[in-house]
Specification:
- There is one protein chain.
- By secondary structure, the protein is α/β, with parallel strands linked by helices.
- About 40% of the residues lie in helices and about 20% in strands.
- The chain has 11 helices and 9 strands.
- Helix 8 links the parallel strand 5 (about 145) and strand 6.
- It is globular, with a radius of gyration of 19 Å.
- Bound molecules: pantoate.
- Pantoate binds near residues 28 and 61.
């Protein structure tokens, strides 16, 4: 597995793959890899000759410096997992490589970035779109794979690719879960054992939403069913429940007529540096 730390090095690696006639799949990550990331790699490997992974803790998508500081960094373990999974090359740039001195260009999906989760984390999706656009331009893969757990992120990236005519295919990959239903996330390691146990309330709330929707409940009743589950878990603080039209993220009301997506975020731990967990479910009519 090639380890590339500069734009020039990863471009040289990709150029060789192209000379070999190989197709290239991309998995972008911030490291602290888990089974969810490895599922993205497996999907990419299933359909591409070479898989490239990136590890870059992107500072522009963190609002809170303490959150950036405490983001888990496990480079040696990450590299071992990627190598074992048959990844061809890993791109691990420094911040100055991605954001060179004097950098002033941003990418923003103006509507999708500034609604829902984007209101709770101002600037977050601008940071995501900007770094993902840069990584797409640097690597020029044929396709990239993103987890469906970060549902709004996936819609932001799809819209950016469409609007900027970036020649890459985007695939969403189903969330990988722990045995009790907790969505895998790099943030889970920051949970205390008690909060880890309590965190199952996210998937339970989504189960309650799915049951309510299946029984023909209104958006208000689905929301209420979820709130009841979170309220029953004193360790979790509800941050947001968003019930929207799948894909466009347009808010829905009444009894949903089409496919909906439900996005949920719940905070655990200290108020000044909480562990913010998110989960989502698409419910098809
Ligand atoms: O989902 C993530 O890990 C990050 O938001 C991403 C897409 C790698 C951009 O930094």
């Amino acid at each position: 597995m090639q380890i590339c730390r500069t734009v020039a090095d990863i471009r040289t690696a990709v150029a060789q793959y192209r000379r070999d006639g190989a197709t290239v799949g991309l998995v972008t990550t911030m490291g602290a890899l888990h089974a969810g990331h490895m599922q993205l790699v497996a999907e990419a490997k299933g359909t591409h000759d070479r898989v490239i992974a990136t590890i870059f803790v992107n500072p522009t998508q963190f609002g809170n410096p303490a959150d950036l500081e405490s983001y888990p960094r496990t480079e040696a373990a990450d590299l071992a997992m990627l190598e074992a999974a048959g990844v061809a090359a890993v791109f691990i740039p420094q911040v100055s490589e991605i954001y060179p001195e004097g950098d002033e260009t941003i990418v923003e999906t103006t509507r999708l970035a500034n609604m829902l989760h984007g209101l709770v984390r101002p600037g977050h999706f601008r940071g995501v779109a900007t770094v993902v656009c840069k990584l797409f331009n640097i690597i020029q893969a044929d396709a990239a794979y993103f987890g469906e757990k970060d549902y709004q992120q996936l819609q932001v990236i799809r819209r950016m690719v469409r609007d900027l005519h970036i020649p890459i295919q985007i695939f969403g990959v189903a969330t990988v879960r722990e045995a009790d239903g907790l969505a895998m996330s790099s943030r889970n390691v920051r949970l205390t054992p008690e909060d880890r146990g309590a965190a199952v309330c996210l998937s339970k709330a989504l189960d309650a939403a799915e049951r309510a929707a299946g029984a023909g409940a209104s958006v208000a009743a689905i929301d209420e069913a979820m709130r009841a589950v979170i309220a029953a878990e004193p360790r979790g603080r509800l941050v947001a429940i968003d019930i929207v039209e799948a894909g466009t993220l347009t808010p829905v009301g009444g009894i949903p007529a089409g496919d909906i997506a439900i996005m949920l975020s719940v905070a655990f731990g200290p108020e000044d540096n909480p562990v913010l967990l998110i989960d989502q479910r698409e419910i098809r009519k």
